Amino acid sequence: MTSVDEPARPGGRIRDAARTQAEILDVATQEFARAGYDGARVDEIAARTRTTKRMIYYYFGGKEQLFTAVLERAYTVIREAEQELDVEHLDPVAAIRRLAELTFDHHEQHPDFIRLVSIENIHGAEHIAASEKLGRIGSPALDVIGRILASGQESGLFTADVDAVDLHAMISSFCFFRVANRHTFGALFGRDLVAAEQREHYRTMLGDMVIAYLTADRAAD
Amino acid sequence: MTSVDEPARPGGRIRDAARTQAEILDVATQEFARAGYDGARVDEIAARTRTTKRMIYYYFGGKEQLFTAVLERAYTVIREAEQELDVEHLDPVAAIRRLAELTFDHHEQHPDFIRLVSIENIHGAEHIAASEKLGRIGSPALDVIGRILASGQESGLFTADVDAVDLHAMISSFCFFRVANRHTFGALFGRDLVAAEQREHYRTMLGDMVIAYLTADRAAD
DNA sequence: TAGCTAACGTACTGGTTCGTACATTAGCTT
DNA sequence: AAGCTAATGTACGAACCAGTACGTTAGCTA
After folding, report:
1. Other C-beta atoms within 10 Å of B61: how many?
2. Of A109, A128, A196, B31, which residue has the fewest beta carbons closer than 10 angstroms?
3. What radius of gyration, in Å, describes the C-alpha atoms of chain A?
4. A124 vs B139, B183, B188: nearest CB
5. Burial class of residue A198 in the structure, from the number of CB atoms within 10 Å of its CB (0-12 exposed, 13-18 middle, 19+ buried)
6. Which nucleotide lies nearest residue A56, CA to C1'?
7. Residue B201, CA distances (Å) to A34, B101, B127, B195 in order
8. Cα separations (Å) of B108 from A77, A138, B18, B46?
9. Which residues from the 14-43 window of protein chain A have CB within 7 angstroms of nucleic acid chain D?
10. Residue B221: which pLDDT band, with cuts at 50, 70 and 90?
């Protein structure tokens, strides 16, 4: 993140293409997350940077491409975080629980990203489809899940018939819903899913759920 | 749903306030779900009804109130469906599984509703907050879950430390994510969560997950 | 059947918003 | 230090879009 609050150099404008672009992306991320794609205002983004609207069009081409660039950077940040995952030294149960907790923490810490993903889904993921970068970005987390799952299934510890993508969907569902639907859920059921006091409760609940599912004694069904 | 395709009566316009309002709500639901709140066009809604934009303002007051009315009707439909729930004659395990499956089916059958909820969350649930109707609508499903849960916990069958709201969140998470994030998930991981062939797989997965969580032998942890 | 009012239609406006034409300058290169 | 170009700023236009002023009529009521 580039700070937008640095005092403007008194000696006149400074030229720094990289910084200007990063600053536009920072502010655009906030604005798109705040108001949705159509609700976001290009003029508002420009006003909150140290540069002008002209620069947004100069560097990104238009509102649509700016949103795509925002998504690309947001997903890149996630993928880089996933590459730091270090759970494969644990036994499969502990590794999966730890992975679920890291996903939980990550979603909680990046509500803007969650909002961007919701917005992109409203628009049928057309920006992801239009992005070459996002098409081939892959997911390190999926590889990690795959290896843990294989190990757990091989040893007979994990009985569930799921692959890495399914398990990733299961873990993400809970983490995503909790943040994304916080407002309607709170308004309708009077419970703030993201309240600090409830945090440990839901974190444990997620881990228990995933482990119970994976290790359930299916012969008893 | 009111059909919009009936041929216009040749003898001139017909006056029917209820039908006009219902038709506006039908089309508005589609348009808001399609494009989001800011992306939706009042002119487009009007064009796709047999009436004019003037009538939208006459009956609903404005775009904002129209969206609120759309949400109110959508939630009312859900709540009415929930009142049809008839699972309490089953044993707790079967009852919870059935309830999860009904939620699963309902989400799948109402993608527009899912989109409206996503949109409302982007806007901080401000329309729900502004609606008297939605504030006191409650949730029959929560009552049902609460009673089944109590029965299962009393008999020692359910070991998990959850209440009805938590369990509802868990079930909804999976069902909601699968429909709401279908597009980004498909684009990034190459799997369509709502594909017909996968339907039974995910339906079973959800039931297994919830039951495994509720009945897990926690002493073994 | 005269009259009344809820229901409806047409045409327009004023503000907003994306995008651009045109002008300028920082700072590197030779 | 002259010149060149990437980077930047200003001012404006054209389309769009929510909302409204004003006029009309269906069909019930007395």
Report:
1. 12
2. A196
3. 21
4. B183
5. middle
6. C19
7. 36, 12, 36, 10
8. 31, 27, 29, 28
9. 14-17, 20
10. low
The model's pLDDT over B4-55, given as tens digits with 9 standing for 90+, comes to 333 333 335 677 899 999 999 999 999 999 999 999 999 999 999 999 999 9
Q: What is the mean pLDDT of residues B165-191?
A: 98
Confirm whether any atom of chain D, the nucleic acid strand, is less than 7 Å from CB of B39: no
Mean pLDDT of A176-202: 97
The pair of structure tokens assigned to A10 is 């008194």
Please say whether the beta carbons of A177 and B169 come within 8 A.
Answer: yes
B18 nearest nt, CA–C1'? C7
Residue B84 gets which letter from DSSP?
Answer: T
Confidence of residue A137 (pLDDT cuts 50, 70, 90): confident
Buried b (16+ CB within 10 A) or exposed e, B82-99: beebebeeeebbebbbbb
What is the value of pTM for the model shown?
A: 0.93
Q: Do B117 and A36 touch (CB under 8 A)?
A: no
B101: left (phi over 0), alpha (psi -120 to 50) or beta: alpha
Question: Which whole-number Å values give the CA distances from A164 to A23, A205, A214, in the listed order?
Answer: 36, 20, 12
* Angle subtended by helix axes A92-109 and A111-122, to nearest 10: 80
pLDDT band at A16 (very low <50, low <70, confident <90, very high): confident
Give the separation between CA B70 and CA B64, rounded to whole angstroms.
10
CA of B160 to C1' of C15 (A): 57
Which domains can be identified in chain B, with CATH numbers?
1-61 (1.10.10.60), 87-220 (1.10.357.10)
Please give the Cα distance from B167 to A21 (Å, whole number).
Answer: 44
Chain centroid, CA B176 distance in Å: 9
DSSP string, B41-61: -HHHHHHTSSS-HHHHHHHH-
